[in-house]
């Protein structure tokens, strides 16, 4: 299961993740003045989320939605410049799904998503995916033109300076992890982490590489260097819900 999750994250997500991310984004997207609206997201109603497959699916659905929110202006510009939007076969109530899936497609360098035979597919996701993938050359060209216009080596450089500074501060913060003591003891966590090559240090200032330290006030909270997020989430401890990223 752990290896499967890692593979899906690298090559895209389950259809239900895209649907839920689109529903979340529909409720938080930036509304523009009526005279400036070029991309239409349908009415303001937000339908209930699909049941999450697991904690991982819930986390990545929200992460994907808020990543799209950061880049909403850029994604809309790519859609319009490429002439991929508007499209008469895609109604306004699927625009959020279109935007979410375009963000993920460019994040995968416009590579095709791998779908296992066992995965339950959703018609709307399959429709949007086929449309975007068939237009990938035009979309990639529009993204390149946008980067040239902004003199940016990556889309992160296109973000407003205030948001980029927030991103830099957030990326420097240590990762906070809660131990689920209903499933595992502290000593077993320490033993498992040691087997995985982690070393326990005394303070936050000592965090470097494969290290962690305990919170001074909460005995069931650990801190890790921010650079280890991907490695941590691929541990069995997280897949088995014995550790949770806060």
TrEMBL record:
For the keyword Phosphoprotein, the answer is no
Q: Which UniProt keywords apply?
A: Methyltransferase, Transferase
Q: Which GO terms describe its molecular function?
A: methyltransferase activity
One Gene Ontology term of the biological-process aspect is: methylation
Which Pfam families would you find in this protein's record? NSUN5_fdxn-like (PF21148)
| Stored InterPro entries | NSUN5_7_fdxn-like, NSUN7
Annotated NOL1/NOP2/NSUN 5/7 ferredoxin-like domain residues: 176-227
* Presence of the UniProt keyword Methyltransferase in the record: yes
UniProt protein name: NSUN7 methyltransferase
Species, as recorded: Heliornis fulica (sungrebe)
Q: Gene encoding this chain?
A: Nsun7
């Amino acid at each position: 299961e752990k290896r499967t999750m890692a593979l899906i994250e690298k090559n895209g997500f389950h259809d239900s993740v895209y649907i839920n991310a689109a529903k979340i984004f529909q409720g938080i997207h930036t509304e523009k003045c009526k005279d400036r609206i070029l991309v239409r997201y349908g009415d303001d109603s937000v339908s209930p989320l699909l049941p999450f497959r697991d904690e991982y699916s819930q986390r990545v659905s929200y992460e994907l939605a808020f990543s799209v929110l950061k880049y909403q202006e850029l994604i809309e510009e790519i859609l319009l410049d490429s002439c991929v939007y508007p499209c008469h076969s895609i109604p306004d109530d699927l625009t959020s799904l279109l935007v979410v899936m375009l963000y993920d497609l460019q994040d995968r360098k416009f590579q095709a998503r791998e779908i296992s035979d066992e995965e339950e597919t959703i018609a709307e996701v399959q429709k949007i995916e086929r449309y975007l993938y068939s237009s990938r050359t035009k979309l990639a060209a529009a993204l390149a033109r946008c980067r040239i216009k902004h003199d940016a080596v990556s889309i992160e450089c296109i973000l407003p300076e205030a948001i980029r500074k927030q991103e830099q501060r957030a990326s420097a913060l240590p990762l906070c992890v809660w131990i689920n003591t209903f499933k595992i003891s502290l000593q077993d966590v320490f033993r498992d982490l040691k087997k995985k090559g982690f070393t326990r240090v005394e303070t936050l200032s000592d965090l470097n590489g494969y290290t962690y330290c305990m919170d001074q006030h909460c005995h069931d909270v650990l801190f890790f260097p921010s650079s280890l997020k991907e490695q941590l989430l691929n541990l069995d401890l997280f897949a088995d819900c014995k550790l949770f990223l806060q």
